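Record type: ASSEMBLY
Status: queued
Input:
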Amino acid sequence: SQQGEEDPQALSIQEGENATMNCSYKTSINNLQWYRQNSGRGLVHLILIRSNEREKHSGRLRVTLDTSKKSSSLLITASRAADTASYFCATVTTDSWGKLQFGAGTQVVVTP
Amino acid sequence: DTGVSQNPRHKITKRGQNVTFRCDPISEHNRLYWYRQTLGQGPEFLTYFQNEAQLEKSRLLSDRFSAERPKGSFSTLEIQRTEQGDSAMYLCASSPRQLSYNEQFFGPGTRLTVL
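Status: finished
Output:
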């Protein structure tokens, strides 16, 4: 079973626009991670936010975490065609040996 | 390239045959994970190794599945008597042992098609 659910399932935007996707999860977490997957490169880690953090930035990425609502959001600013991919959130619980529990993902298409 | 490697990249087999996949993690990463991903879904956890010890197995891993990491380096995942429902992408990931759980580094995956 999937721990997280992403919303929306699919997103289509033009280059230069911002893309926002959300993730909800069910149980208490140690950290939440976002990964990108495209056919050429497989799953790539983007950013990790720990349960005691509320916001993190990495380049054009901004992640927020609200543990009271069990939700997270990923914002990609000034999107590029190369950002076209599927984006997954994945949670890690404290007693889980670090295993990732993924959501179903958001498919993002950025058109030039 | 010192990333995670997986072989083969693609495997087509007939129902009932056995298949074996190999994963070579990043050297010195003592944590190794196997996941399975079907079309349109996120990866699902299968099993976890810390060095050579298999510490957790998902209920998804039926008796037909077996995984090993004999010397704490590479790992193999074997599926016996394959079924069409086993068709999926099998992903391997590794991470270093640290006090807290951090990112995992994924290999390109092995795509299995069972006819």
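Annotation: The radius of gyration of chain B is 13 Å.
Annotation: Chain B has no helices and eleven strands.
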